[in-house]
Write a structure and sequence with these properties.
The complex is a heterodimer of chains A (192) and B (259).
Chain A (H helix, E strand, L loop, with lengths): L5 H32 L2 H5 L6 H10 L4 H16 L6 H19 L7 H24 L5 H32 L7 H11 L1
Helix pairs in contact in A: 1-3, 1-4, 3-4, 3-7, 4-5, 5-6, 6-7
Chain B lengths: L7 H15 L6 H17 L4 H24 L10 E4 L2 E4 H27 L2 H12 L3 H30 L8 H32 L22 H19 L11
Antiparallel strand pairs in B: 1-2
Helix pairs in contact in B: 1-4, 1-8, 2-4, 2-8, 3-4, 5-6, 6-7
Classes of the chains: A mainly alpha (192), B mainly alpha (259).
Chain lengths: 192, 259
Amino acid sequence: MKNWKLKEIVVLSVLSVVFAVVYLAFLPVGKLLSGLFGPIGYDFIFGIWFIVSIIAAYILRRPGAAFLSETIAATIEVLLGNASGPILILTGMVQGLGAESAFALTRYRSYHLSVLMLAGVMAAVFSFAWGYFQSGYAALSGGYVAAMLIVRMVSGAVISGVFGKAIADGLARTGVLSSFALGRELRKKRAS
Amino acid sequence: MSLHTLNPAMKACTIIGLVFVLAFLFDPVTPFVFTGFTIALTLIFGRFRKRVYLLYLSAFTLFAFGMLWTTIAFADEPARPGETIRLAGFLFPKEDLLMALALSFRVMAFAALSLLFVFTTNMVHFILSLIQQLKLPPKLAYGLMAGYRFLPMMKEEFDQIRAAHRIRGVTESKSVKGRFKQLKRYSIPLLAGAVRKAERTAAAMESKGFTGERSRTFYRPMKISTKDWGFPLLMFTVLGALIVLSIQLDYFQWYNGQF
């Protein structure tokens, strides 16, 4: 935290606040899908709930960005009124750690699309392991649970990895990120 | 005792501790009674608009009910299929029904606890207490407060962007595909505006001498006094008593490889 610039922290928290609202907005969508398909309904769009960690890490490129942003977003979600209550903060931490692990694996050097997708998959795996315990997936039948995991991993890779990158790149093209890691990289690319 | 004057960090830690204990309980009665207790406590010792509270509570009840339904509908094969309960004309395996009830009441207990916190805590006091009691780095904490303040401004900004698009003749679409495109059209400008504002805010904070060091003074010092310990004492005593009662009356269910 010491070598973070203040503006990076404020941007991190703004992103977390914005996506906390997005996360809440997608809850009814998940509810609707789970009404149609059962508990697996949530897994189709589960990637949306990891997206801030991938966006923040991709823009700021600092160790801890993925973990912090997801944790903050979850906390704000609870404060705004998520029915799952304080346990959601732990869920956010677990998801953030999952995404963080992928970036740590590359020692925070690579932010290629494949790494971002891996971060989404890792967040899905971590959150699934947590959900298995916390939401009681073991009460469901085995094949169904396996299908849930696979769908969630794909969702994590596509929604948070691919869409997350698209949003961050779109943001970088507007030029507002010029003093952040992603903006600097874009400028370097354009110069060469 | 008023819930509003309790130290926020103490309140938060107590609630997280309670959530942790509740997560390991698998009988339906204990979380049900504890939910009732928490709601009563919130209503008696909290000062807020009761109607809003009840609105939230009913939404969360609906959520818990949905969970009850899906847990039963998608349950694993019961270990003892012979034991069933008849309910509303349907036969349910007893084991599945009890498990589903336990999970839903647990969700309700979590919701009641989080509402207790949300309805009786000032966000700024909470963050100040996090810095002063739980040693959150001030740099992160004040950055967070600044970010949180943007939330109400976002709505305004969104309306502005929308109006700007419409006045230039970009019509709003009703189809799903059109709405998706629309979302993209709004989200980038919205985020860009937020990032710009964040940068300006950070510059303003630093220009006024904010360094983010721990050795700072506070306009509002947050303290933990002896009466703050009453809250965790009360909550854990009640939960403990309920658990003891459940062991005595023999309906106690601990985490036992169910998951």
